[in-house]
Amino acid sequence: MAAILVIFLPQIVSYEEVWHALRDLSWFELAAVFAAAVLNILTYGPSLMAALPGIRYRPALAATLASQASTYIAPGGPTVGLGIAYLMLRTRGFSRRGITLALALVTVWNQLVTLAFPPVALAILWLAGEGDPLLETVSLIGLLLLAALVGLVVLGLHSASFARRAGDAAASLVSAGLRLWRRAPVGWSGDQVAHFRGEALELLSRRWHVLTLGTLAGHLSVFLVLFVTLRAVGVAGPEVTLAEAFAAWSIVRLLGAIPILPAGFGIVEVGLTTALLGFGGGEAAVVAAVVVYRFLTVGVPLVCGAIAGALWRRHHPSEAEQLGATDAAWT
């Protein structure tokens, strides 16, 4: 991240020009950007509420924020993030199976939405009479991955025998990996996965639409932060349209999801800046928008997640010790 800020972005535009673009923001524009950032934070909870019946909004928001924050700083971020969310939800009295099912569904739905956005953006650009070679390539990759993921999900939910065979294969694979680390094999098998499938079907039959809406709200609120920031710093409609902004964001959203660096640091900044400049945005305004957007969608959730985790540790000291042991094991 430091290399991007110190080496790459200054090659495009000086930070003096970026500062001028930010300094000229009116109170109304600052309020609009702040409101979009707050809305983004508030949308962290609904998808978990849809997947975990009985949980209230505040604990769902706290668990999701703390889990997301850990993915930015912890080794093996996504895995540790799921572990943190699991432990926090256990203190609320939810069953292990219920939490595991909820986190699995939220994770799968997030991946489905991330993969679906580039083809949707490409379709919107085509309807507007535009096109982009990079978007077409990324959209094709996303579409193929989306089809593969949807096929696996549908097949796993449709067939109990497939779920059982897949579970046995996964258990064997994980156990083989554990043996390399001189650890005991897993204690689950395909039968548990088949039972898990039945619970997932029952939950999705009642809440799939709520889960989908909650997931879409969470993702689109992130785009809203970018779009409002672009307009606030002076990137007008004739330079970068709504469709072009969504296309650039959806490309980088998919590339940033590749687990190379935490939160896609470097990939997102370079990719988003390059795409927006390619669509016609001004250099100083685009760099200013990208810097502010990344601060509001990474820095602010990181702080909120740290606060949520600290409050949880304070009120659940015994579970905090367990979490510390989990962190040490992962490290």
Strand content: under 5%
Largest β-sheet summary: none
The computed structural class is: mainly alpha
So what's the overall shape? Answer: globular
Relative helix content: over 70%
Q: What is the count of DSSP helices, taking H or I runs of 4+ residues?
A: 14
CA(first)-CA(last) distance: 22 Å
Give the helices and strands as they follow along the chain. Answer: HHHHHHHHHHHHHH
Number of strand elements:
0
Count of domains: 1
Kindly provide the radius of gyration, computed on alpha-carbon positions and rounded to a whole number of angstroms: 21 Å
Low-pLDDT segments: 323-331
Q: What is the mean pLDDT?
A: 81
